[in-house]
Design goal:
single chain; 6-stranded mixed beta sheet; 23% helix; 6-stranded antiparallel beta sheet; 7 helices; 14 strands; Jelly Rolls
Length: 340
């Protein structure tokens, strides 16, 4: 058969070369040479609109089917397979999984040093806003969260020597993708579970609460003239201390927006994180954990505009180790796979 294997080869050529006149040209294309020669459509010059793309797809598909039928090719015996294979519902640009669209945007918006610009970051945020639990294989979990009732909940946690619930409920992490510019993953948190106070050094983080409700508490360091030993208490300012209900998206930056934060699940919930650049101990981006301290460093001089009553003193735990009892297990990601 002299025709290409699918009508999309024509559509791709029309979109790449582009021309608003293309749809009209193709209306009369029944007697033209459809062997795939790029010289067949020399007038295609400008990009068609979305509606024209749909019209082109419909016209080209009809021509392709008619030509194959005239040559005796048995392709119309399985119309459902053809429609599935070539997206004949004319919504071809919208059929790509949303997580793939998000990943593609991250690849061009992030670098090994972080977001390329504020505009590209906002583009990624807009796509993240569209992501739903269903797009990530979490529809069942989201349904459980929607019907969850605190009065009928079961006890969480594991039984230890000291009795039930000695240990915190286990959080599951679903890894999606990681490269030198960004990483994507989901924290699935059972009720009353806690992600302890931690930071994202040198990183920009977009977080979307996919389903459920949690309490978020976040801080930024207060700039002081003479920084103290990082293991000694340091002053920080509270940025957020409130409940979050899905769906909600937030952005934090290396030096603002609540880079040091903690989450406590109120209901079953899931946090989808996009980090740029990702954690890397080799590049000085290792996660540190903190705790509130009642000790204040008297030698630290606070900026005059800072109200001392708003200051919280935080101290870093040694050796980047999380608090005892914090457990994160690897979970199975059931959504669309992101290829490298």
């Amino acid at each position: 058969c002299p025709l290409p294997p699918s009508p999309l080869s024509y559509l791709q050529r029309a979109v790449a070369a582009g021309n608003a006149r293309g749809a009209a040209d193709l209306d009369d294309a029944g007697d033209q040479d459809l062997t795939g020669s790029s010289a067949s459509y020399p007038s295609l010059q400008i990009s068609p609109t979305k509606s024209e793309v749909g019209r082109l797809c419909s016209i080209i598909t009809t021509l392709w089917i008619n030509c194959h039928q005239s040559l005796g090719c048995k392709i119309w015996t399985e119309p459902s397979e053809v429609r599935q294979s070539y997206h004949l519902n004319c919504t071809l640009p919208c059929k790509m999984p949303k997580i793939k669209n998000l990943s593609d945007a991250c690849k061009v918006s992030f670098s090994p040093d972080g977001p390329i610009s504020e505009e590209t970051l906002e583009r990624v945020r807009a796509l993240l806003d569209e992501i739903r639990p269903l797009d990530l294989g979490l529809d069942n979990e989201a349904q459980i969260a929607r019907t969850w009732n605190s009065s009928t909940r079961q006890q969480n946690g594991r039984r230890g020597r000291g009795g039930p619930n000695q240990y915190a409920p286990t959080i599951k992490y679903l890894h999606i993708h990681e490269c030198e510019s960004f990483s994507m993953g989901i924290f699935c948190m059972p009720p009353s579970s806690v992600i302890p106070l931690h930071n994202h050094p040198g990183m920009t983080v977009l977080s979307k609460l996919l389903y459920g409700k949690l309490h978020a508490e976040s801080y930024d360091w207060i700039d002081v003239a003479d920084p103290t030993d990082p293991l000694k208490p340091r002053p920080a300012r509270c940025v957020r201390d409130r409940e979050m209900t899905a769906p909600e998206t937030t952005i934090l930056y290396p030096d603002r927006g609540g880079n040091i934060h903690t989450f406590r699940a109120i209901t079953p919930c899931a946090l989808f994180d996009v980090l740029s650049p990702p954690y890397s101990a080799e590049n000085g981006r290792d996660c540190s954990y903190f705790q509130k301290s009642s000790v204040k460093e008297p030698s630290v001089v606070l900026p005059s505009e800072i109200d001392s009553s708003e200051v919280v003193w935080l101290e870093e735990l040694e050796d980047h180790q999380p608090p005892e009892g914090f457990v994160v297990a690897r979970g199975l990601y059931k959504g669309p796979v992101i290829r490298r």
